[in-house]
Amino acid sequence: MQTLDIIARIHTDFPAKFGIPRQSGLIDALKSTIVFEEAYRDASALRGIEGYSHLWLIWQFSESVTTRFSPTVKPPRLGGNRRVGVFATRSPFRPNPLGLSCVRLEGVELSTPRGPVLHVAGADLLDGTPIYDIKPYLPYADCHPDAVGGFTDAIDYPRLKVDFPQALLNPIPPDKRDALMEVLAQDPRPGYRHAGDARRYGVQFAGFDVRFVVEGDVLKVVDVEAL
Amino acid sequence: MQTLDIIARIHTDFPAKFGIPRQSGLIDALKSTIVFEEAYRDASALRGIEGYSHLWLIWQFSESVTTRFSPTVKPPRLGGNRRVGVFATRSPFRPNPLGLSCVRLEGVELSTPRGPVLHVAGADLLDGTPIYDIKPYLPYADCHPDAVGGFTDAIDYPRLKVDFPQALLNPIPPDKRDALMEVLAQDPRPGYRHAGDARRYGVQFAGFDVRFVVEGDVLKVVDVEAL
What we know:
Number of domains of chain A: 2
Shape of chain A: globular
Strand content of chain A: 25-35%
Radius of gyration of chain A: 19 Å
CATH architecture of the largest domain in chain A: Beta Barrel
Oligomer: homodimer
């Protein structure tokens, strides 16, 4: 039995799962920082990493540790009622709770009060997620433009128009607004909602609870509260 | 501390490390099979996987478990004398011994005497390597044609001409020859050899020890022995 050591944690604007994009790389405006655990705060471990544009993170699905092997899952994006094999999905409910995400490397700070820090864009991770490994993205081995994406190829992801009244937008820090608008435009609701859904939803982002309703293809923000 | 369970093992033609391509996907003629451990022999866990062309494997660097964190490594392809940060490499000598490889999915057999089996191409893994996770390759999230590959972009990998005398080739099963020729053409020698290297090397492949010398850009096979 292999045991894993947490080497770092990622700090993102998502304190809760709802609203996190379904995969990494879909919202480049999302900015995160990777802070190493004390035992791994060594700037030399990052020597040469600045030459790569993208990194792989292998991380822990910390909120979905399962105790029993369940061979099938119901992906929310398939409506939540179709079962597919767990190895045909990136679902968190898998035998070993390992997540895999590609992020864009924006910057490396070798010396901060918290040790060396990586600044990355596009992460689809909960704030504080434990990281087990960081590897460079190697285009010659990892990039397959001819790859076929199974049932995910057939899913349509319509964008929403976002109606965010200026008075509600004002408290959001300007450098967080692009990412938040994009989170909303990509429709954070689960796939298994009903047509004519009149529910009020809330995305927690960057210290705010952003509440909205959706009518047709318009997402209207109705309330913003500091968390 | 997270513990991981082995879900499967991959069966490849490489009983030893020497000769394994430096990354996955470089030799499509390499064919492997993934056989699940008994607790995970459930065909429904693969439902839908046949729709994907490529898979990610997260696996154990079973021959290189380290006990102490070493922040830098000397990649053989950099000549073996230049140190770079471990997180800027895919080196096996990392805090958690997790490997990441993309393979092409060639076929799925749901019912064999060993349970469901995946047939994959291009794996850069040692025979018997433990697998921790299998995930679909999602082109929209995993394919980054614009990615920059750090110091690996600058490395030149000259191909060798392979001189494999017919009498020595005869014992190799015909369906293994293309892969073996390509393993040799990609120059399996470590990067830190000297110019004018007259050593005799041996690649173990598909049950044979294939011995060769290299003169200039010609790799000449000098002996083939059954293992």
